[in-house]
Amino acid sequence: MSSTKKLVLVGNGMAGLRTIEHILKLAPHAYEITIFGAEPHPNYNRIMLSSVLAGGTSIEDIVINDWNWYEENNIRVYPGDPVVQIDAERKEVVSESGVRASYDELIMATGSSAFILPLPGANKEGVIGFRDIKDCETMMAASQKYRKAAVIGGGLLGLEAARGLLNLGMDVTVIHINGHLMDRNLDLPAGLMLQRELEEQGMKFLLNKHTEEITGKNRVKSLRFTDQTVLETDLVVMAVGIRPQVELARQAGLDVNRGVIVDDYMNTNIPGISAVGECAEHRGIAYGLVAPLYEQGMVLAKRLAGAATEGYEGSVTSTKLKVSGVDVFSAGQFKDSPDTRSIRIQDDVDGVYKKMVIREGKLIGAVLFGDTTDGASLFSLIKSGEDISGREKEILLGVPSGGSGAGPSVAERMASMPDDEIVCGCNGVTKATIGDAVLNKGCNTLGAIKSCTKASASCGGCKPIIESLLTHYAGDNVGEQVKEGICGCTSYDRDELVAQIKEMGLKSVKEVMNVLGWNEPEGCSKCRPSLNYYLGMIWHTEYEDERVSKFTNERYHANIQKDGTYSVIPRIYGGVTSPAELIKIATIAEKYDVPMVKFTGGQRLDLLGVQKENLPKIWEELDMPSGFGYGKALRTVKTCVGNTFCRFGTQDSIEMGIRLEKKLDKMVAPAKVKLAVSGCPRNCAEATIKDLGVVAIDGAWELHVGGNGGVKVRAAELLCTVKTDAEVEEWTYAYLQYYRENARWNERTAAWIERVGLDHVKTALEDRDVRLALVERLEATLGRTVDPWKEIIEDENLRKNFTPLASAQNAAH
């Protein structure tokens, strides 16, 4: 009889998954693990959502454990399918879709939700919180249509949302109930300094304001305050705090206060059920910072793995963050009271503020603004409770109280730092973990430490202290600082990888990793898809695509939606269809109860809400090519009417668009590619904000490249003007192949053109022999490709991946 127990995790977030990671290390075969998540995404770093919103990071970049990780660890996962019932007597959970899973051990990690103020009008369209990827997507979409945004809440979360909305081009006003920003983390002088800095960046502030009502018919139009003043706005983001999600726990009979009540070993009042993370309440406190939640997860993992552990005794918290490019740190009791003394310095010229709060000779709190270098050492003093009498100025200023000599060196500060000091708050990495990586695992570079421990892999704010610890532990054995590669698994960048693959004749993802000495034998979600692309681009006549190295959408050739269903977008060449084709699409949509059929911005029809097991049947009955709406490939070729009907048209844009799309319809690329053809300079097809746009003029065609109509709008630049249709095709194919062969994985043409420069591309393509050689290579590649929908329809082994059983077991893959 198997001794493996069943472990169910309710919640697919950071705290729960960190617990699972520890269990897998401590007792890799002890549990058969099942995970239910409310969101249709793998485990991602919620702390980095503001970077996604600001446009500097993609959703893929903030994924901590990708879908491959779940598969490799034999974890059954149900994304977008939250648990709705727990039967503690039968030890069984039931999900929203009806999946039942029994358990021996159950971990509640349901996290928290954004607190929405119970104001009149709070249910109107355009009023949201800022808590997950969906909120980011809502804000991004709003920025495309609306201009004014209001953020209620002047804490960290509110300021991060405001910064992102500014980057999206919106006019942003932050409303805060108190007199200075981030008053839970900063005192008045630091708060005012932060406000000045953010005002210079374009933010507006209304302080000491109480919102009374959100007005508007269906969508928000304005905010009315208690002083009867009004602020017009098109979007309201509430960032006023979080609320532990405990309703499921309460219904199951768990003891609940603000959060699910747990003891020092994360036990609840019902045997076999534990709680961890933002939903848990320990000794009256529900923590909202990641470091304490990771500490809880370690204790829980050790207990479940049967390892010896001391109980969790609570956390002294500190906050070190970068708010819109400004470094801030606070810890402990940083506000003055009658029984405290303070020492502070304020430099308005350089934007630096430092303050220590002392009670009975002990440091009990600190605030740093602009220069947070000493944050870790101050936090250590707060936690240790040692007497610092007579050393106050030395600690804050680095100058001994005697008035001469230097303060403690970096080496001395690193040596005196406690081993359990968390030096990377985003990922809960301690000083001891860094020491173990350097001394026992051979990590003697920053990149190696990042790969091994995840320290500095998120916001990067801890990089200086990680480098100091590396020097402290490795001494003269610190490795040469190497440039970062395509990911933490390797030091090779894109160009070096391509050169090595060509020179050494490497023909598979695994071979590249083995020969080139990957740090992680199986790679990660960044390098596997990129290697798969580079190999296919280089060995275009022989390389076989590796399905396991692709993202979920590209594995199943359909876009996964937030509820776990998929969308189907068939190819409609040039946006031109027929009555028979429309009737066929409508008939199929009715037959399979497709909840929504929508016209896309690229002149196509999107069938939304399709069940996974129905995908092959719908593809077969449609009998249309895949529109690749899910992939890094040619998406659409948008066209206007052109001279076929339009009285302004100078060329046949429809015919040109169809020709280009039919020739390129299975072209994969480093990133998605969108084309457009306009029949005259009025540009109804929006060709000048596409990756490649063809614009008709009298007797000729203009080719514009490097445009983007997304979050970061970029106007395309003129590549060339040609006279014939054949020249349009030649330059288009040559340009796209040159991009395919030279861009980095996941790099859109807009970013690529900005990096290499249009003149570089013009020079590269000016020789016709070079262009023809590029065209030949692209045609050879396209000649080998098959339509993925047709391939799956005709291959019984591939169709098995879409059966109801496979869907239930591998909903994430």
TrEMBL record:
Similarity section: Belongs to the nitrite and sulfite reductase 4Fe-4S domain family.
UniProt protein name: Nitrite reductase (NADH) large subunit
Source organism superkingdom: Bacteria
Q: Which InterPro entries does this chain map to?
A: BFD-like_2Fe2S-bd_dom, BFD-like_2Fe2S-bd_dom_sf, FAD/NAD-bd_sf, FAD/NAD-binding_dom, FAD/NAD-linked_Rdtase_dimer_sf, NasD-like, NiRdtase/SiRdtase_haem-b_fer, Nit/Sulf_reduc_fer-like_dom_sf
What organism does the UniProt record list as the source?
Answer: Paenibacillus tundrae
NCBIfam families, A to Z = nitri_red_nirB
Q: Which cofactor does it need?
A: siroheme; [4Fe-4S] cluster; FAD; [2Fe-2S] cluster
Q: Where is the BFD-like [2Fe-2S]-binding domain?
A: 422-471, 486-535
| All copies of domain FAD/NAD(P)-binding, residue ranges | 6-282
The cross-references to PANTHER family, in alphabetical order and at most eight, read: NITRITE REDUCTASE (NADH) LARGE SUBUNIT
Q: Which PROSITE patterns is this protein grouped with?
A: NIR_SIR
Name the keywords, alphabetized.
2Fe-2S, 4Fe-4S, FAD, Flavoprotein, Heme, Iron, Iron-sulfur, Metal-binding, Nitrate assimilation, Oxidoreductase
